[in-house]
Design goal:
The chain has about 575 residues and is mainly beta. The chain has a domain of about 190 residues. The chain contains six helices and 42 strands. Helix 3 packs across helix 6. It is elongated.
Amino acid sequence: MRGRLSSIGLVLALAVSLVAVAIDQTTAGQEPTLFLTVPGQDAAPVTDGRFVAWLVPGEDDPLHHDVYAAALTDRRPVPLSTGPAKRAGLDLSEGVAVWSEGELCESCPSDIVGIRIETGERLAIATTEADETAPAIWGRWVAWLSNDGQRQRLVLRDLNTNGAPETLAQAEAAGNQVIGPPRVQSGLVVWLQATARSTGGEETWDWRLLARHVAADEEPMVVAEGDATSYLPEYAVGGETVVYTAGEELLAVDLETRQARTLASSVTGSFSATTDGQYVFWGRIPPEKPDQIDILGFDLATTSMFNVTVNTGVNRTPMVKEGTLAWQRTMGDAVEIHVARVNDVLPSAPRPDPGTSSDEWVYFPETGHYLAHGFLAFWKRHGGLEVFGYPLTEEFSEWDPDSGQLRTVQYFERARLAYYPEHAGTPLEVQLGRVGVEEAATWGFLESRAFQSFLADSQDDPSCVFFPETGHHVCGAFLAYWQNHGLDLGDPGVSKRESLALFGYPISEVFTDPVSGLTVQYFERARFEWHPDDKDRYRVMLGRLGVTLLAQRGWRGQAQPAP
């Protein structure tokens, strides 16, 4: 890999929902993510999808920390390394935990040690006269920083061989350069190099973020570069994605396309962003509650942002590996370690039954989701269960290409509601998404014969209406259903504009769905289905487009068993 990445300034502004307030998780049911409560202020938990490891402070010296681990299946703490010693920099991969360990003094050098959790085999990874710190592990590869007082080096070692570690970068130990701690994941090692310069009495750091494949002898790729006067970037790698903070922005770089995009702006401080290549998680201080830190998530594949945990205290240091997310929550003199499968923190994951009720929200046990405030009022007023179906997600933010911003949305079996704050106080404040167009596109229908427009009305049939706006007809029972249903905009009966507001224009003629075998017709916001064997009222039904669209993005509505 060579070359410098181009930067595309795709800024995804943080969406602010005025429709609904996040349900307070401290009152709406007990969180199922709580794994263990341990003493101390910073457990620095790490996970590899099978185990969780963490640090526990000793009572004799502030440098003293012990290392513990537990399997996700039994949650039983097992000591990995205890007794008077300074331990830090914990990481975990494929059942192997690594950390730095040395005598209890600030100036005493540390070694890099590890242990295979299942067998108890201890690994002496780096035991030299130098100070070895900040290890990171992925499979058989371990990278760390080494400082012998003359040079600081970034080194990489293959645990399956007895060869000497490879030096990836080096600088004078007492100079104006610094090498940041490595991050290793998905066959890549990522690190930071920075050089200090003085301008007008102010120190500025010129930094570069670099990446290289662990098993290849190649020049590193420049992922990003810039300058900083206060905080150097924090960074992480997963898949072919590197995420990092720069100033008040959180950015993600796709190493395959060499493009960067800004995921969030106005990020106060830097709170350990982490990624597995599809999802990014990070901590954010909510402006209205500066004494808290929430954990947010971002789906890179669908450009969607969602809450993982909010209004629950100080949540920090998220780590995602092998489909599992771990983080810590400070609780006075103790730390709660929380662990969840990624599928179980997505907006589509069912929430626990709160066992209570509220005038501001409704919980649907059928799907395990809440419906609140403006979306709840819209749902009730315009057809409820029959028209929209049950909610399939919580509220989250989804990229709106028309406005170029993130917009608050919620998916239902047959629809997607979206909030438009620019139309607050008007009937357009909550609008229906064009899920008919989107679902037809996912199946490749838009180029099929049924979706080709007519230039003029081609049917001499009084039971049909031709819509020149899209060049399609609506006939018979489908026309009757379209004309008899609509959003309540205050018109007498059901007006054409009210039907258009609910369903949109037809975008196809009637055809036989090759998947279900049903006679169907697509509209901008719906799919009509003909069920001739059902009772009259249910012969025309709306397709469950929300179900299809969520499934195609890989969001499952079924929660996996708790770890």
